[in-house]
Prior knowledge:
By secondary structure, this protein is an alpha+beta fold. It has helices at 9-12, 39-51, 55-66; strands spanning 15-19, 25-29, 32-37. The protein has one domain (9-66).
Amino acid sequence: MGDTDARGRLLDDPFSYRTTKSGEVMISRGGRVVQTLGGPAAAKLLKALAAASDEQQAQLILAKSTGNYRRGNER
Length: 75
């Protein structure tokens, strides 16, 4: 992953997720739900998480799915 998470924030304060009976995926960080996905978006996320090679890649997938992900030169 290179310098994607150079400061280690994704591993220090990780995202977590749970799947509901109705098929929704609830993504949490710091004990609070930050995003709820349903339908095709939830299925796509679960497929990507199953294919993740390690925990850091899974954290990056969760961060991108919530929109809480800085790109390039943002400060």
